[in-house]
Design brief:
Length: 402
């Protein structure tokens, strides 16, 4: 059977996924390991090194990488649609099964491991892609701009009003002490704490929904134009995207981190969130542009070997990150919740990421799918996926959530 170019695996997509896993890991690790970060407040009396580490994570990782993952989700949707059409399958039925699989995996992830799950949001909000799959690329870009623009302006305005109100709220010390006791207790107390946090986690998903939807639509437009396929984007375009993204995104990120972590005082906190969210897509785009430029450089082959295997196992690696960090943090294992500074957590995240890069490379040499990818694929296809074996260049891009 003839294989269409549009259905081939795209190294750029996998490489971007693999790179984005590092950003997701640094943000999630900080929240999993620290009650102050999970409550969204500064840790009083934190050493300077920990303050600097948390400032860097807030500025250059928080709110940036989930947008990049969401963009890739939208891009991959176009590949999955082509794959379903090639197989003669019902696109709607296949994607609905995939969405159900994401929701189920997300519920298990949120209850057993990390309440800051994104899979449930992808499973539900991804239905918008199904409804809009025939939309023109230009219309999708306009929709994304309107969705995120209105959301960002509204959030920034509310942040400004909150700053003028200057209504300072004391740190929820009792909540922090309760969470520390729960995560240091037993497996049962960990599960109860995650269940107690689930409603707030779902509220957080609602707040993220406009950004996720906007990134979905941008990814959908990019997929229809095959911008991540070989030769899809010109070097001049990537340079322009990277430059503009840095010029707009870095000042916003600096203000966001300064309001959240200092030196600005707490009255700037909500305005910082608004400005940070409004400018986050620019920095996300700059990251993507920079990675794509490096893939076209003399470093390209080495970067592909480094990031592509991890990107092919993005779902397994995403869940694995939560499993490892929850083992370190809670009564599942070492019970170090609230006892490790942000700088040490950042080093730990780097070590976990390096381990995942190595394991992903070894795994993809022998197997076509990761364990979580295999399960999601089985749900999506309503049947057993293809035989084991390394992924081939002609294999369609898998139905990944990231």
């Amino acid at each position: 059977m003839r294989t269409r170019v549009g259905l081939r695996r795209l190294p750029a997509v996998d490489a971007l996924r693999g790179f984005a896993l590092l950003g997701i890991l640094t943000v999630n690790s900080a929240q999993i390991m620290s009650p102050y970060v999970s409550e969204g407040i500064r840790e009083p009396g934190a050493p300077l090194g920990d303050q600097v580490a948390m400032w860097l994570v807030t500025a250059f990782a928080a709110s940036k990488f989930y947008l990049l993952f969401s963009f890739l989700f939208g891009y991959s949707f176009t590949l999955q649609t082509l794959s379903a059409e090639r197989d003669g399958a019902n696109v709607t039925a296949r994607f609905l099964r995939r969405s159900l699989g994401l929701v189920l995996l997300g519920v298990v992830h949120a209850v057993l491991l990390y309440d800051g799950d994104i899979l449930m949001a992808y499973g539900v909000l991804g239905l918008a892609l199904l409804c809009a799959r025939r939309i023109r690329p230009a219309t999708a870009v306009k929709a994304a701009a309107w969705i995120y623009g209105v959301f960002g302006v509204l959030l920034t305005g509310l942040g400004a009003l909150a700053g003028w109100a200057d209504d300072e709220e004391s740190a929820p010390q009792q909540e922090i002490e309760r969470a520390v006791a729960a995560y240091h207790g037993s497996v049962g107390t960990v599960l109860r704490e995650n269940l107690d946090r689930l409603p707030l986690a779902l509220l957080g998903v609602l707040l993220m929904a406009p950004g996720v939807l906007a990134a979905f639509f941008l990814g959908l437009a990019a997929g229809k134009r095959r911008l991540l396929a070989p030769g899809g984007a010109e070097r001049s375009q990537l340079l322009r995207i990277t430059a503009v993204g840095l010029v707009v995104g870095v000042p916003g990120a600096v203000f966001f981190a300064s309001a959240a972590q200092g030196p600005l005082d707490d009255r700037w906190h909500f305005l910082g969130i608004g400005i940070g969210m409004l400018t986050a897509p620019a920095l996300s785009a700059a990251y993507a542009g920079l990675v794509l430029l490096l893939l076209e450089s003399s470093w390209g082959d080495r970067l592909q070997r480094l990031f592509v295997p991890a990107g092919r196992l993005a779902l397994t690696n995403y869940l694995g990150q939560s499993l490892i960090m929850m083992f370190v943090a809670t009564a599942y294992g070492l019970s170090l919740y609230g006892q490790v500074g942000a700088a040490a957590v950042l080093v730990l995240a780097g070590a976990v990421y390096a381990l995942q890069l190595a394991l992903s490379t070894a795994w993809t040499r022998r197997f076509r799918h990761g364990p979580a990818e295999w399960l999601l694929r089985a749900i999506t296809l309503a049947g057993r996926p293809g035989r084991a074996g390394p992924a081939r260049a002609s294999e369609p891009d898998p139905a990944l959530p990231t």
